[in-house]
Write a structure and sequence with these properties.
Number of strands: 2
Strand order of the largest sheet: 1-2
Order of helices and strands: HHHHHHHHHEEHHH
Number of domains: 1
Helix content: 40-55%
Largest sheet: 2 strands, antiparallel
Shape: globular
Number of helices: 12
Length: 333
């Protein structure tokens, strides 16, 4: 299916959202001019960023490094044992985290449709997907392409660190830089994502590569890294920054976990995890949800306002839809 056809399909089916946040949506107030340090600080220390994206992935990366990572001494040679251990660990994490989110929100529907963006369900009996099932299709691309390529990048870096081939920093050498890297990586990832994502919408790359991900107009956790292998390679290449920036292996692990499970989380299809009616954990990203609905807007992420700077920002309003010549967003009633 061509991008134009998919755009028309998305625009004319389900014109209304089931739910959306207050409009217009805004980008993170980090790079605003003039600077707004108070707003930026509130955003940074919010549940939406610090509590739902930064600290959980720092904690997960430290747990992986200390509890589930092969001894660095084993990594000096590319041997099947430690490589397979990393692959099995990554596959297990993928099945556990993406599987749990899918079952909670889309399998057992424990939150119903509260704070769910799309009114439509995930695709079934749809010829676009492998076995005509969106979840099976997404799991196949994620596990058979995404996890192996994620593992390949991790293995290459662990081998490089073990052999002293990469610039490295330790907590003892520079504790401030060690901590700062965890904060800076999500912002670099946003810039890198925009730089590789916009070209993927060029006609040839879209048809041959990126269309696989965009079959998912309605998205779920398994849609996050459901991609063509070429797109996986481009997406994970964000970690190549560590070839020149002094880092620690745990930063590479964090970076890759953020890439994988940040996408799983943001593609959940729900804005928040609710507990007794209160939002306790941020999940979905309406900024990117608009991209899956309309295709030609919001190529980056809202941490760095590249779409605003380059004229492709959709804030969810009808005015933005007219300006970008995409389907009109009708607020939920």
């Amino acid at each position: 299916m061509s991008q134009t056809t998919m755009e028309a399909t998305a625009s004319h089916s389900a014109a209304r959202w089931n739910w959306h946040p207050a409009l217009p949506i805004e980008c993170a107030p980090v790079f605003t001019l003039p600077p707004q340090p108070a707003r930026a600080a509130r955003w940074f220390f919010s549940v939406g960023f610090l509590g739902s994206y930064l600290l959980p992935y720092v904690a997960l990366s430290l747990a992986v490094w200390f509890l589930a990572h092969p001894d660095v001494a084993r990594s000096t040679h590319l041997e099947p044992g430690w490589i397979l251990a990393i692959f099995v660990r990554n596959l297990a994490l993928m099945l556990l985290i993406a599987g749990a989110l899918h079952l909670y929100f889309h399998g057992y529907c424990r939150q119903g449709t509260t704070h769910r963006f799309e009114a439509r369900d995930l695709g079934r009996d749809d010829p676009r997907f492998f076995r005509r099932d969106q979840v099976i299709d997404n799991m196949a691309w994620s596990c058979l392409s995404g996890v192996p390529l994620w593992t390949a990048f991790e293995v290459a870096f662990m081998w490089g660190y073990a052999n002293g081939a990469l610039p490295m920093v330790t907590w003892e050498d520079s504790p401030y830089w060690f901590v700062a890297l965890f904060v800076l990586i999500p912002f670099w990832q946003t810039v890198h994502f925009y730089l590789i994502h916009k070209p993927l919408h060029w006609r040839l790359l879209y048809r041959t590569v990126h269309a696989i991900h965009h079959r998912n107009v309605v998205i779920g956790p398994w849609s996050g890294i459901s991609m063509h292998p070429v797109e996986h390679a481009l997406y994970f290449s964000s970690v190549l920054i560590h070839l020149v920036v002094p880092s620690h292996p745990v930063h590479v692990i964090f970076h890759l976990l953020f890439l994988v499970f940040g996408a799983v989380q943001s593609h959940s299809g729900f804005q928040d995890l609710l507990w007794r009616g209160r939002a306790v954990f941020a999940l979905g990203d309406f900024f990117h949800q608009l991209h899956h609905r309309h295709f030609t807007c919001n190529y980056g992420a809202d941490y760095v306002p590249l779409d605003r700077w380059f004229g492709s920002f959709h804030d969810g309003t009808a005015a933005a839809a007219r300006r970008l010549s995409v389907g009109r967003i009708t607020p939920a009633g």
